[in-house]
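Write out the 3D structure for:
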Amino acid sequence: LLGWPRARTKERIDELLNLVHLEPEKFRGRYPAQLSGGQQQRVGLARALAGDPEVLLMDEPFGAIDSITRKSLQAEILDLHQRLHKTILFVTHDVEEALRLAGEMAVLRDGRLVQSGHPCDLLNHPADEFVRELLGADDRVRALRLIRAETVMQPLSAPLIVGQWIEVPVTGGETRALPMDASLHQALSLFLEPGVEALVVVNADGQAIGWLTLQDLKEAACGR
């Protein structure tokens, strides 16, 4: 469809297989029936990325696979999103999956938009009883387990290698590194260590991309 020469197509296939962690030499010649469910989902994602689109539409992509594989693929989606900076429109009926993945979230009912915004905003200020019950908004501990640190951190203007100077607005105290896909529950565990006042959020390459204070965590969990 894009009019690429055969050599460019082969090169792109190998790029995409590597991107979704499938060895090209091992998988490029396989048929769908020769792949596991998780491998098929990875190939589907690679196909969607083939033409380098600005927006990806994923309609319940992980609904038919086991929970362990689903969590692994969710982590890969987050990693790809951070590396490729693509807008992903992700449709799901799994509320926990939505809360875990979303930077912005929209709740639909009978084909109509009920509420949209950051997951923390929906949890802390549900528009109606339907949204409250759907999201389990009264269970704060559950929210801490699902919301990612990356979505509530104070972002840096550009990534920095850990070890470079990062000015964090706290008075003394210690800092700890926190992976960007870690939950706020994991962040809270680090804040409970003596003397820790801030967490530096790092991406998969070990670069600092933002910071998180205990006040940020409280506001995310309890609302401003």
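The longest strand covers residues 154-161.
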